[in-house]
Fold this sequence. Notes:
140 residues; alpha+beta; endopeptidase fold (from Nostoc punctiforme); 6-stranded antiparallel sheet; 4 helices; 6 strands
Amino acid sequence: MYRKPDWDARLAAYLEPLRLRPFAWGSHDCCIFAAGAVEAMTGVDPMPEFRGRYSTAIGSARALSRFGKGTLAATLDDKFEPVPAALAHRGDIVMTDGLLGICWGASLFAVGSEGEREGLVMIERRRWTNARGWRVQYGF
């Protein structure tokens, strides 16, 4: 799976309608959000085995045990090339303190809340802690 030549426009188009969409297990959580971003950039859904398989936190953990590698990080290690989060490029997947999102240069977009507003939140790179990254490959 490789990024399409217009991956940046595809990613921006994917993010726009999600700005105010609230978190929902199994339909708009960090795993489904990041997988959707990768699908937007590459045309390939990297996590089809998880779609429609859970609707709660416990269900998510069960799905990771049944269809993944036990944890979200281990599942991503199996599907993508791990990279230090400090070297993540725009469009790469990043996890910080268990929150998974998409790198947007000096920030990360993830599903969350800011005050009473739910939807996509932006976390500045300098606030990433215990961060891990995974490369979404470029095509040649």
